[in-house]
Structures are given as structure tokens and as C-alpha cells.
Amino acid sequence: VARAVTWEALAGLAPLRDRDGLIRVEEVDEDTRTVVFRVHGRRSVAAALDPAGGVHFDGEAPAALLAALEAERPA
Amino acid sequence: VKPAPFAYVAARSVEEALAEVREGAWVLAGGQSLVPLLNARDLRPGRLVDINGAGLGLIRRSGGVLELGATVRQAALERSRIVREHWPLLAQAVRYVGHPATRARGTVGGSVALRDPRSELPAALLALDARYRLRGGGRLLVSVEVPPLPAGTRTGFAEFVRTRGDWASAGAAVVLAPGHAAVAVLGPRRVPMAERALVAGAPAREAAEIVAEEEGGTPHQRALLADVVRRALAEAGRA
Questions:
Q1: Strand pairing report for B59-62 and B131-135
Q2: What does the pLDDT look like over A13-58, one tens digit per residue?
Q3: A30 touching B, CB under 8 A?
């Protein structure tokens, strides 16, 4: 669980690069506040936003993605 | 064979793409159909406008409506959770498009914009009452919007191909819900007479015969079409 980000920050996260490749938003479900990231072109990770701004992943989130979300956390 | 010389422009936004898509220009998305045409010199565009960096690669659901950006890959459509859960017809149809390798690059927008009458996705989208968002006076397809399906909807897609991955000889997409039926065949064309019969409770065999009669063609073509419609209806739960 990553802490307290906004929906706009989660859904609008710019593509990231880590040493294994590209991580990018592939699908956005505004109705359930869920984003699916395509990770390195090989697997997908869904991230659901709860009402408190917590992000729940359905699989292993890459460190680069967690760091990017941490950077988006409101001060 | 190599393509004839052309100018290449990589658009970073829709506005940039619109500024570049003018007389003599073609839009490059996945390139799975366009590039072979260029290599064979069946097409000789003066300019290719690459829209892969224009921010049109997202699958989005909002207010129950599905929005598919023009450069959404066919493979992304195939693995999409939103699509699988809410618009399964698209997942059923896209599995028949090309091969896994071509679906990894091929795009929804490319399938639609090239308007090949044998394409699967335009037929599925027609059965789903999809709308196309165009910009620049129709020069650029930006996205495809698909309305929500009625509760209790079941869908099916079937086609006949001589060789796996080849273009289909016949194909049909169906959407069935209480009080609603949509039947689209490759072309794509809707078949309203069959839809009315299905709403009235016609069995699959009868509806398939209506489609074949409406579409016409040789006895072989009509038999193929009736067969794919029957199979699509069976997948949608209509015996």
C-alpha cells in the first residue's frame, strides 16, 4: 500500500523507466478508481485507490513505481 | 521491396499531429497494415505522421462509457480487465485479429481507420454502437467510444478463415440482452431484420438464415455466413 495520493496523480502518472524497462499506465477505470500499469511490457499490475488516498496493488509493484507515487504524495 | 521516399514526423500531441496531417500524408499507428502496403509500394505517401507518442494509448472507462485511444494496442484490448468484464465482445473479437506478434503492435485505431471490410474489430464495434471521435475535419481518428451494455447482455463472435491468422471469409458479432439484439457481419454491416427476429425470440438457426438471405452471395458464401452467425449466437447463449 502506497500512502495518500490523489486520483489525478495516480491516473496521470507519466511513463517511468527503470533498469528493466518502461512502466506506464495502460488502463484507467474512473468508475472504480483503478489504474492498470503495464510493467516492462511483460506483466500488468492494478492499483486501486481507496477513499483515504491509499493505493492497493494486486501484485508486486516495482520500486520505481512506488517511488514515483511517493513523490506525488501531497506535502 | 523498400518504400518510396517519404518525410517522417513523430507527433508528440494530437495538436502536433493535426498540424502535420494534410494532403498527401498518412497516419502511422501500429503499422501492421500500413508498412506492408508501403513496402509493396501500393501506397506512396509524401509524409508519414507517427502518432504513437501523441498520448492516445489509453483504455479508459468513465461514467460507464469505454474510451479506446487510437493507438491502444490490440494486445492491450485482449488483456484489458475493463474490456473483459464490461465489453467482452471486444475481447472475443480481437483474439481473431492477426497473430499475437501483430496484435502486440497493431492498434484499435489502425483496424478502424484502414477500413478493410474483412476486419473483425469494426464489426464488433458496430454491434456495440460505438462512436468514433475524429479531429481536424475527419483527418485524424482520436478515439473510439463504446456505450455501456444493458444488464444481462451476452455476446459472441465467430468467423471462418481458411488458414489461422489469415483474413476471414465470413464473420459475425452478436450482442443479446433482454429486448435488445445487435448482429453485425464483416464489412461491417448491421442486419436489422435478423435483430428484430432475435428480439422476437427467433432461434439461432432461423436468425442465421435471415442473415444469409439478407447478405446474399453464392450458396457457399451464404452457408459460411449462416454458420458463423449460428456459432456467434451459440456463444451468446441463443440456441
A1: unpaired
A2: 999 999 999 999 999 999 999 999 999 999 999 999 999 889 999 9
A3: yes
Q: Which residues of B touch A (CB under 8 A)?
A: 57-64, 76, 79-82
Q: Is the Cα torsion angle B59, B30, A44, A37 positive or negative in sign?
A: negative
| 3-state DSSP assignment of residue A7 | helix
Rounded to whole angstroms, the Cα distance separating A66 from B51 reads 29
d(CA B45, CA B23): 9
A50 and B CB contact within 8 Å: no
- Please give, rounded to a whole number of angstroms, the shortest distance from the CA of A46 to a CA of chain B: 9
pTM: 0.94
- Chain A nearest-CA distance from B82, in A, is 7
